[in-house]
Amino acid sequence: MAHFPIIIDFRKISGHSQIVDALSKSFDAVPNDTVHFTINLNTYSMLYSDHLVLIGSTVNHLRNIGVTVTGNFDDFRSASGQVRYASRVNFFEQIGFAYEEAYVRQNTSGRFTEIKKFDDDSALDIHKEIVTILLKDAINEDMMTVLEYCLWEVIDNTIRHSRSDGTVYNGYGYISCQYFPNKKQVRIIIADNGQGIHKALTTHPNSKYKLLNEVEALDQSVDKGVTNSTGMGFGLWATATLIRENGGKLIIHSGNHSLEIDNNKSVTNTSKWQGAYTYIRVNTDVSVTYDKIFDNDGQKNAFEELKENLLGNLDDLW
What are the structural domains, with CATH classification, of the chain? Predict the structure, then answer.
């Protein structure tokens, strides 16, 4: 039985890649091994729920495969803003840490979601909850309809492709969303610890991409029409196009490589993430219209049909 000490100090963390650096060794653990987390939640800037999702997802993955997970918090300040925030977005609940909240919870009021686990049964409700955040002051309807389509495609990819046993629609993941009105930004993350993009794209018997290596699979995952044959291969391409037009940021990390899209596109060698996570940051004051994404009537009609099936009348959300 092996023991893996994992140290995460948010005073030294500025991005998702540094959290993966800290977590990466834990993915070598096998049943009956022990992983011990030491976490310092204090920061010199802000604590983000999309960072905490990566930790919560990993802790639950390890427990699910039979690894013993223990942990402690370093310099834990129970009344600090960081601790209260972590509790409010349900991080402590996700990792199984008992923390008694000494405050009254206020309604999220369309500003953020708690960290949530989703599967095929719960995905639509969570998707609608995030759309209410996008609708409430954050994004105009034209932009929102494009983003909610892309969001659903990423959620659906996780449910459809994260399992490695050949089944579809049996996957699950973790998600969070927060709107920052002062920064005019929305941050969303969808994370799983499944088989990863390379295996999902190359091992399906009808896939045209069986010969791709991990770098090629990740790089081409955002190209139009790339799919393992179970979908249209449009969702990640639409998401990447949206990000470019909006001036936001997209990160897709799977295995030992991370793809980043902002004004440029790059794939870099990184520490290992078991499965895949997709981080989306959009600027709420930069609208992206249909015609930037949908270049023919067939695509636009398919989008409108999906929108209607998912949401119906947007007014019904209120």
Answer: 1-98 (3.40.1350), 110-318 (3.30.565.10)
